[in-house]
Structures are given as structure tokens and as C-alpha cells.
Amino acid sequence: MGHPKSITLYTAKICPYAQRVEIALAEAKVEYKAYQVDLSNKPEWFAPKVNPASKVPAIAYGGPDVDPESPSSESTKLAESLVLVEFIADLYPEANLLPKDPTLRAKARFFVEVVNSKFLPMRFILHNEPYQSILDTATVIQSLLPESGKYAMGDEYTIADIAFTPFYARFKLSVENEIGAYEYGKGREILNALQAPKYAKFNAYVDRLLERPSFKATFDEVKLTTKTIYRGC
Ligand SMILES: N[C@@H](CCC(=O)N[C@@H](CS)C(=O)NCC(=O)O)C(=O)O
């Protein structure tokens, strides 16, 4: 495989999907151009020239060095956060974002599948649905954690952790600050419920996720608290 080419990431600070890719790029220590897409007023060139689905994150890979607002037809356009995270993992194998062992690799992808299809706090935060499903998912996630090791697959921080971290962070920020469409006080209520000893392993794990430098460097808490969390997702 040749040396990786230049990357332009079309992103938005408020977007948890985009933060997955920013974390992967930070973990792999990649230098790239970041272009902030205003999700409430997307540039008219974005869908036709970058991502027909008109969503962030998207990457323009390779091609000539151009202004991100004039994407080149010669770069490869890629989208979907989990695809992009695996793409970074493939380009930079030394970052160990994907386990080498096929069984662990499958387990990492299974973990991603669980968080992607089951950890859906937006339903509670934006649509005031009951939060019990969040507690149930915490139990499932906890059951997938290894006996020992800091992260979902052991001591290496992998795609499994990357897929989950931005969503857990926004969930926590929302409930701690009572930001969302749910009744005031429900945030504190779910936080209290999650403090039960039966979630101890889950809590130790998520605390470590939020301490990871790649997460901290890519999370803009001030911007998030002043805007509605998950807007546009
Ligand atoms: N499945 C996509 C979801 C990306 C997504 O929903 N992005 C939102 C922001 S969080 C977006 O760009 N929304 C703009 C729109 O739908 O108009 C992924 O994993 O990348």
C-alpha cells in the first residue's frame, strides 16, 4: 500500500458521528484539513460535490491540494462515520484501531453494532421517550466488556470505543445539564439510576473513555451546551 494521501474532513463540532472520525484521525496522528459545515445552512456545493446524502462526516481523499469549498473531481469522496473510522484504521495500521486477531476484530465490530443500533439516547433527549432503554443498553454494553483491560477490547483503544465515545459524551452532557426535550429533573434521575453498584464496571469504562486525549481534543463542550445537543442528527 502506498503512503496515505491528503485528507479533507467535512465535519461539524456538534455532530457525534463526525467526532468519531475526528477521534480516529487524532489517534492515528494524521494531519488533515477540517472544514466545518454549517448544518443549519449547508453550502450548495456540499451535496453535489462531496456527499449526495448531504451529511457530515465526509472525506475527500487524495487529489490536488484545493480549497475545501472547491472540492476536486479527482479526490475520492467517502462518507458514513463507521466506514470512515475503518478507513483510517486501514490507512494507519500502526494506530491499532482494529485488533489484528480476527476473533477480536469481529468482537470489536459486534460492539460497534451494539452501540450503533442500541445506544440511542437521542430518543430520550430529543423525543422524550422513556430512558429505561438507555439503562438496558448500559447493561448490555457492560456485559461485553472484558474481564480486565481499560477499554472494550482490552488495553488498546479501538473502533469499538471510538463508535461509542461521542454518543456517551453527549448523553452525559445532556443529562448533567438537563438539556433536552425531556422533563426537567429526568436528567438527574437517569444519572442517579446509573450510579447503582450494578453499573460499576460500565461507569469505570465510560470514565476512561472521557479521559482519552483524542476525545478531549475533539470535544467542544462550550459549543455543545449552548446549542441543542444532537440537533441535525
Ligand atoms: N449514518 C451517518 C449519520 C450522519 C449524520 O446524521 N450527520 C448529521 C449531523 S449529526 C448531518 O449531517 N445532518 C445533516 C442533514 O441531515 O441535513 C454516519 O454515521 O455518518
UniProtKB/TrEMBL annotation:
CDD domains attached to this UniProt entry: GST_N_family (cd00570)
GO molecular function: glutathione dehydrogenase (ascorbate) activity; glutathione transferase activity
InterPro entries the record matches: Glutathione-S-Trfase_C-like, Glutathione-S-Trfase_C_sf, Glutathione_S-Trfase, Glutathione_S-Trfase_N, GST_omega, GST_Omega/HSP26, Thioredoxin-like_sf
Family matches, as SUPFAM superfamilies: GST C-terminal domain-like, Thioredoxin-like
One family name in Pfam for this protein: GST_N_3
Occurrences of domain GST N-terminal (ranges): 5-96
UniProt GO cellular component terms: cytoplasm
Keywords noted in UniProt: Oxidoreductase
Span of domain GST C-terminal: 101-230
Protein name, as recorded: Glutathione transferase
Species whose genome carries this gene: Hydnomerulius pinastri MD-312
